[in-house]
From TrEMBL:
It comes from the Bacteria. The chain crosses the membrane at residues 16-34, 143-172, 210-231. InterPro entries: Zn_peptidase_2. The keyword Methyltransferase does not apply. Keywords: Membrane, Transmembrane, Transmembrane helix. The keyword Signal does not apply. It comes from Butyribacter intestini. This is Peptidase.
Amino acid sequence: MGFYGFPGMFYRMDPTYSLVVIGAVICMIASANVSRSFSKYSRYGCKRGTTGAQAAEKILHDAGIYDVQIRHISGDLTDNYNPGNKTLNLSDSVYGSSSIAAVGVAAHECGHAIQHNVGYIPIKIRSAIVPVVNLGSKLSWPIIILGVILGSFNMLNIGILLFALTLVFQIVTLPVEFNASSRALKILDKSGMLYKDEVRGARKVLTAAAMTYITATVSTLLQLLRLILLFGRRDDD
């Protein structure tokens, strides 16, 4: 809510709500940028005519990975690598497309598969904390709201700590995503799968995608700061 109450019926604007607005705006800008970049380079076909699925298969096999299944899933920009069942899932706009954007995104997801295969530490940490973070994200706001209703500072503290787990997860995710993109671009360049000018296009798409992770982290940090500020104010009252 953008307003907080004082004893009686008086309400005034909560200045900390601006932190939420700032976070939402930068996330919207980053999301629009990645959509624009992907759309632009989806219109440019790579000269070798390699599809996203073909690129993924070649990259995985060249890395000695044969136990990862490449799947076609619905949607746009829903691509992901699932280490649990070892599936590399490519969306409608990537799987059968031979665009620069499609090959870049497919290579990025292969980067995650390679990370998993070589035991990249940050992705191990991220996978390990997923269950705790999921639980924390579900319980944080109900506990915070209950703490406000009951006037319990202990419950507020617990709720804020649980919310902070999301920020920890996002911070750990940053090196995972940047490393996957770095691996992808090096592979695309060295293998000759994309020409130099095409690699530059793929880099722009992956850089735009990486910015969404940065802005999401900043947005969560701002929300956490707001909770801390609000809690401090309530504590003083």
